[in-house]
Recover the amino acids of this structure.
């Protein structure tokens, strides 16, 4: 699955035009939305499922669900946050089914922190080889915080992009990220010692 050049959050006016064309009967136009957003959704699905094949299947399910519910899409909304909501709901369902097996597979390979080094453990883990531990820790966050943390830490979106996708203000995103960072720090430090 390759990212299209147009892949990203800034395509809303043409998204709405495509949605209108699909709803008027030109269902083949929906492929443009698939091409535009499959990369973003694949990265999101992979951050939940940690398996390329499962992520690819989940993306297909997300687009099928979006196509099925497209007639209920309110044109006053932006398309990408609506699609993202469908994706998160679908992934949470998939994630619940596979959570126990994923937790068993998630290995925490943290080394003791060098003496005198007091950096943010979340940033250290993201920057280091322990990104799998961060994914596992994010999986333990409450769903209210998980979406923002996944998009910011794993998808590397900016605060404003996360806000747009989640339909929140940047201040709300910063607040959620702050709370998520505190919980992630606790989880990572606890598991680093254990």
């Amino acid at each position: 699955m390759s990212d299209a050049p147009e892949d990203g959050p800034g395509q809303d006016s043409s998204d709405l035009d495509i949605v209108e064309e699909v709803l008027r009967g030109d269902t083949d136009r929906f492929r443009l939305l698939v091409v535009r957003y499959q990369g973003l959704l694949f990265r999101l699905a992979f951050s939940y499922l940690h398996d390329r094949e499962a992520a690819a299947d989940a993306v297909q399910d997300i687009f099928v669900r979006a196509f099925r519910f497209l007639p209920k899409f309110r044109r006053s909304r932006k398309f990408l946050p609506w699609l993202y909501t469908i994706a998160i709901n679908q992934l949470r369902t998939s994630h619940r089914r596979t959570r126990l097996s994923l937790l068993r597979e998630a290995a925490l390979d943290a080394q003791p922190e060098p003496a005198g080094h007091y950096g943010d453990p979340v940033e250290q883990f993201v920057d280091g080889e322990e990104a799998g531990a961060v994914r596992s820790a994010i999986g333990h966050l409450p769903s209210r915080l998980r979406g923002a943390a996944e998009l910011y830490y794993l998808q590397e979106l900016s605060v404003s992009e996360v806000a747009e996708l989640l339909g929140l203000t940047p201040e709300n995103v910063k607040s959620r990220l702050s709370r998520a960072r505190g919980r992630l720090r606790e989880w990572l430090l606890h598991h680093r010692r254990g």
